[in-house]
Amino acid sequence: MPPSADPDTGMLTLTAARIVVNADATWSETFADEETGASLHRWNWLLRGLTDDPIPLSRQQGLALMRSWIRNCSSRPSLTTDAYSTGERIVNGTLFLMLTGDGTIPRDITEAMAWMARDVATNVEYHRPEQTGNHALNNARALLFAGLIAGAPAAVDLAYAICDERLPTLVTPDGFMREGSSHYHFLFTRWVLEMLWIAKRGVNDAFVRLLAPYAERLVRQCWFFLVSDKNRGDWTIPLFGDVSPDFPPSWLIGLPWSSLACDVYRPDRLSIGPLASGWECLFGAVTGTGSPEPRHDSFVSPSGWCRADAHGWTVFSRASSSDGALMAGHFHRDLGGIVVFHDGAPLITDVGRSDYTNSPISRYGISACAHSTILLDGLGAAADDATWMSGAYRAVQATIDVGGDKGQTLITLTHNGFTRFAGSVGLHERRIRLGPAELTVEDRIAGNGRHEACLRFHFAPGIELRNRPENGWTVGETGLQFRTGKLPNVLIQSGCAEPPHGGLFFPEYGLEQACQTLDLSGSVRLPVMLTHSLTLENI
C-alpha cells in the first residue's frame, strides 16, 4: 500500500487471505472460514502492515481504516460481545498508534477504546473450573491497555485481578504455557511481554512486579523450542498442538531476540537471530554475536516436555499425565509422538493443524494419526475428549526421562494410555536412542492377544523416501537411511486430503504443504517390540 494511498486502495493481510481495501465496504466481506473474518475485525492487519509489506502501512492509512471500522461496526452485537476479538482490536490498534508517528492516540480513538474495554469487561471469558483457557488472560491484556491509555483505573484493577488469578494456572512452574502448543507458547509470551511493556510505560509498579517473573520464565522456555539449521542458518520450532490463526509462527519466531524479551531473559551467548520480519521489529531486535553453538544437553520438564540434543540429533517429545478432567487447551493427541531434527534441519515432523473448522482434515490434525507415534486397533494412546467419555477412560499416567548409555543419549517415554483396551494391553514404553551414527526408535508394548498395530512417521516437506533393499529407504538428500521393523504393510502417502489422510503439513493456519507420511501396519501379538532406525549411510 503506497504511503500516499487512501483507504480505497491497497491490501490487508488477514488469516489465510489477502483482501483489497474498499473503504466502508471492506467490513461487510464474508469468508468461508470464520477465523479469516475474525482477523479482519481483530485489526491484526495493522501490525502485519507495519512488518510484512515492503512499503509499511502509514499511520494516516491505519487511522482512516480504524475510524471506518468504528463508524460501520461499533453497533454490531456479534462484534462487540466477542471479548477476545474486541481485546485484540484494543491492543493491535493501540500498539499501531503508539509505535507510529508521534505515538499519540487521538481522542476519538481513545474514547472508542474505552467503550471497547467496557464490552470486554462485560464479557470476560471465564468458564467452569479448568475450562477457562488463555482467552481470559487476553481479556486482561486488553483491559490493561485500555485502562492505561484511557485513564480508567477500574479496568486496570480488573486486569490485575485476572492476571493474578490466571497466570499461576496458565503458566507451569517451569515456565511453559500449559495448553500443549509450541506456537501458542510464543503467542502467549508475546501477550505477557506487551503487558509488561505498557505497565512500565504507565508506571504501574504492582503490575510490573506481578508480570516480570512470568515473562522471564516464558521467554526462557521459548529457547527450549528453537532449533537452528546448521547449514542454512535459519531458525524453526516444532509445531506441537494447534497453530494459532492470529499470527503465523514465522511472525513470532524472532520474539526471543526482541528488546522486550532480552530485557527479561537473555542467554549468556545470544546467537544471530532469524531475519527480522515479525513482531520483534515493532520493538527493535537485538543483534546476536555469532552462529549458534551445537547443543549437547537434554531437558525434561516436570510438565512433560522433553528435548535432547546429541551427535547432531535434536529430538522433542511430550508426555503429559492427565486425571481425565476436561481442560481448556490447544493439545493434540500426540502422546508418544516425536519430532526429529538432524543438524538442525527438520526430519520427522509434527504436521500441525489446518484450521479450526470441524472438517475431516482439521480433525485429522488433532488425531494421533497426524503424529509420529504408534496406534493400536486404530486408536492412539491419548483418548479423544468427547464429552460422553468418563474421566477414568481419558486419564493417563505418563513419564519421560533422559539418560546416557555407552556414548548414546536415551529418551525413555512410558505411559498407560493403551490400558483402556479392556485389560488386554499393558504399558507402552518408547525408547529413542541418539548415537553418533544412528537414531533408533524402539516400541515395547506389554499385554496379550493379537492387535492391529500402526506406526506413522511424518517426514518434513521436501524429503522424499526412495526404496532401498532390506526394508530401508534413502531419506532424500540427508545422507540418512530409514530402516523398518517387522510390520509387513507399507504405505507412503503424499498430499492425501481424503481419508485416510496423510502426507500433509500445515506450517501456518490455512496453509497446506505436501510431505511424505510413512505408514507401517500389521497384526502383532503382545507383548511385542518394534524397532526402527535412522542411520547415516556413509558410516
Highest CATH level, the class of the largest domain: Mainly Alpha
Q: How many domains, as an integer?
A: 2
Count the beta strands.
Answer: 21
- Would you tell me which CATH topology of the largest domain applies? Glycosyltransferase
User: How many strands, what sense, and barrel or not for the largest sheet?
Assistant: 10 strands, antiparallel
Brief rundown of the structure:
The chain is α+β, with helices and mostly antiparallel strands and 539 residues long.
Note down, in words, how this protein is organized.
- This protein has 539 residues and is of the alpha+beta class.
- It folds into 2 domains: 239 residues, Chondroitin AC/alginate lyase (Glycosyltransferase), CATH 1.50.10; 239 residues, Beta-galactosidase, Chain A, domain 5 (Distorted Sandwich).
- It is built from 15 helices and 21 strands.
- Strands 10, 11, 12, 13, 14, 15, 16, 17, 18 and 21 form a 10-stranded antiparallel β-sheet that branches. Strands 5-6-7-8-9 form a 5-stranded antiparallel β-sheet, with no helix packed on it.
- Strand 16 and strand 17 form a beta hairpin.
- Helix 2 packs parallel to helix 5 and helix 6 packs antiparallel against helix 7.
- The longest helix has 21 residues.
- It starts with 10 loop residues before the first strand and ends with a strand.
